[in-house]
Amino acid sequence: MRLASSAITVAALVLGFAAIAQQGGSGQSPAPAPAPNPTAPPARNALPQVDESALRYFASQGDTRRVNAEIARLRALYPNWNPPSDLSQLSSGGGQTPVDPIIDRLWELYREDKIADVRATIAERQSSDPNWQPPQELLIALESVEARRRLTNASDAGQWRTVLSVATETPALLTCANVDVMWRVAEAFAKTDQPNRARDVYTYLMTSCTNPGERLATLQKALEFLPTNQVTELLQHERKTGTEIDNFDSIREELARRRVEAASNDGKTTATPEDLAAVERLARGTEEAGPVLVLGWYNYHHGNPARALELFKTALDRKGGPKAAEGYAMSLRALERLVEAEAFAYEWREQAPENMKVYLDIATALLSQDPPPRLDARVVARIVPVVTGQRFPDGAQALGWYSYNTNQLQTARDWFRQALSWKPDDEPSAYGQALSTQRMNDRAGFNAIATQWRGRSERIADLADGTLRGQAAQPSLPATQQARTVEMTPAPRSVPAPVEEQPRVVVQRNTYQAEAAPMRETVVETRTTQGSAGGRRNCIMTRNAEGLSPDAALGLGWCLMEANRPLEAVNAFDQAVRRGSGRTREEAAYGKSLAYLRKNLTSEAAVAAAQAPQTGERRVELGASILTQRALAAYRDGRYTETLLALSERARLVPEQNDLMLIRGWSYFRMGRYDDARKVFKAVEKTGYSEEAAAGLNAILEVTSNVRQ
Predict the structure, then answer these.
(1) Distance CA 269, CA 259 (A)
(2) How do residues 588-613 score in pLDDT, each as one tens digit?
(3) Contact of 663 with 522, CB cutoff 8 Å
(4) What is the fold, at CATH topology level, of the domain defined by 255-488?
(5) Which of these, 359, 360, 35, lies nearest to 172 by C-alpha position?
(6) What DSSP designation does 393 have?
(7) 30-55 burial by CB neighbour count: b if 16+ within 10 A, else e?
(8) Which of 65, 417, 667, 697 is 20 to 30 A distant from 122 in Cα terms?
(9) Tens digit of pLDDT for each residue in 107-127?
């Protein structure tokens, strides 16, 4: 072991800190200063004059650990010095001058770590004999112990720059004999934003120190303070041969777990099969919930909620607590099992803020289904106090739409008002209040709402102008609901009651109804029986596609599509895409695209379509479907230029159907391009859509007549 050169190397590393401290921790590394040598260097080939009194004393006491530590220290200070081959020479004095008994006493106190007593004894002896001097090695040893104590105390107190200053002043500490000191120096570098210097210290320990336990502990320390890639680099120093072989498997498993955990929070980052297998082994080899939770979140964020549900259930069984419950409830929601999700999330809602947020999110989604679900009165009764207690405007809005769609207009208006009291600028709630008030024939109330919101809501202005009278299409709720812990407030005076019959709102026709009609009538035609060989198959019980062959996964995907469970079908098709080849892979990519289109996930459908080559016919079919959905989405959002662009691109693939031509016409109308709109409506009129086309032409006539007047 080349302790001398190694000590000088790491000392030089630490001594560079002084310049860095003056620069405010900029991270720039000046040229390292040489390690100080407390004695003048001996002439070439001359033996150094070394005080071996400490070494002699520890040998006489049979203290092997102290002997080895002293040898390491002396080698670091005197590179040309070598210890006697026979340490018994030291214990007997080795023919050297007899040692003063006071020296033995001082070393004994030092050995007992009574540093204050050593200093007191030295002072006492010098007071009686001013010419007496203690051994230089003892003084150096005392300074080293005192420096180590100062460094340790500073480290424990989080005074990281003091740690580095002490290390700079006492480079003799920086050897494998003081591994704990080296760990603290590395931590100080990390805590002062110098990760590369921390890495250098850990590298020195891995290349110079031999104790297997300390080497493993060094990597464990590095895991805490270094990025994953730098810890991975340290693994190259693993000793695989010799008498002391390293076993760093636990470090590799932890690194794999961290990489999978990072990927579990980012659906765009995919973990390697090797890392996933390592975490699977960790999960099987322990009863702790941690590794299972990592796998659960990875599967959830990578589109496999069915597998995630299984893993979160295992984590719950292992007492994974609120985080496991959060994942379980979110997986149920992703699988569209909203009734189960609401009941489960309700039981965990008070355990953590995240659990309350998930419950409110699920309850809102449950109430917002179209058509409205048949909910037990107890379900609504337990949702209401949570929504009001949390003052959650999106939940109040959802209760409003649930009441509205079940024809409970007074209750609906109360809930929309409640939502607005918590979030005064919530336009969807104001729109719901306006619709409810209008349906109740409360003209004064409706006029008050219209006056307040006319300048902020085009929809409410249209209602007031009579252009959308009676139209009760429910707007989309906000995608993100944030739970808030605030004071309890009373619920609105009415609570939605269970309804046996749930009538849908009747849409009355009017001059402008045809403008909205295409949005209701246009559908993306997708075939869901591709690959079916024997009619409708039974896939009521969800199976995990991971263990299926590519062909079996493909069959499961089509079955789930027939059962109108597209998100589960995506997982099955994805398995067939990953593991299949040829025709199977092509069919799976096609099915995955259709599944995403079924859920209006246009971008995901486009990506899925590119995962495997498709026939020309299918490329056209998928391209037209994707562009149709993009046009519809843009039209719904009032992005009429994007609507026209998507329709024009679609028209290059397939002829434009009448309902999409109507959308084109109304887009021109909304943009004020009345001549273009008139041409489109007249073209539609010739195809037999005379009533819808006439509505558009009449609207153009009304607008242009008003302009001329």
Answers:
(1) 10
(2) 888 888 888 877 787 777 787 777 77
(3) yes
(4) 1.25.40
(5) 35
(6) H
(7) eebeebeeeeeeeeeeeebebbbbbb
(8) 65
(9) 777 777 777 887 887 887 778
